[in-house]
Amino acid sequence: MNEQRVRISDIAEELGLSTATVSNVIHGKTKKTSEETIKRVQALLEERGYIPSMAGILLAQNSSKIIGVFINDHEKYEGHTLDDAFIASSLNYLSTEIEKQGQFMMVKKAKKPEEIIQFASMWNMDGLVVIGFCSQDYTYLRNHMRIPFVVYDGFCEEPERFFIKSALSLPYLIIMPSI
Q1: Fewer Cβ in 10 A, N or C end of the chain?
Q2: Distance from first CA to last CA of the chain, Å, rounded?
Q3: Predicted confidence band at 123 (pLDDT cuts at 50, 70, 90)?
């Protein structure tokens, strides 16, 4: 069964509407749209099983909702970076907190801060969590990147939601181990 995905243009064409009108109904921008048109669009969307493209939604919002988690792929891990107990535990915690905030987590191993900047820009990330790099790398990131980030190099005994919100609002924050 090889069914084609239903597109906004398919709905618009079938109803004799513009793609902008259909898109506006999908995204709740209906101030200038008649109640009858809204109902027709919604009925056909449901009938055809329209599934919105997440990429399209995020593009329309000018936000990726992606928090990048960058882990130093240091040679000490001998190719098993994500197997490290601290890293695995941190990813588990971060995943839960990021999802609570309605964001998505993307994990990437990197060896140099330049890789972080390139990858984060390519994905239009809203914020970053950086784990296991040196202080000069953090300074480099702060000076060469506009995406807010936090440095997560420790285990917090009492994790707080403050952490993820900080990733989106502060240019640079360090969370260190509590002793």
Answers
A1: N
A2: 58
A3: confident
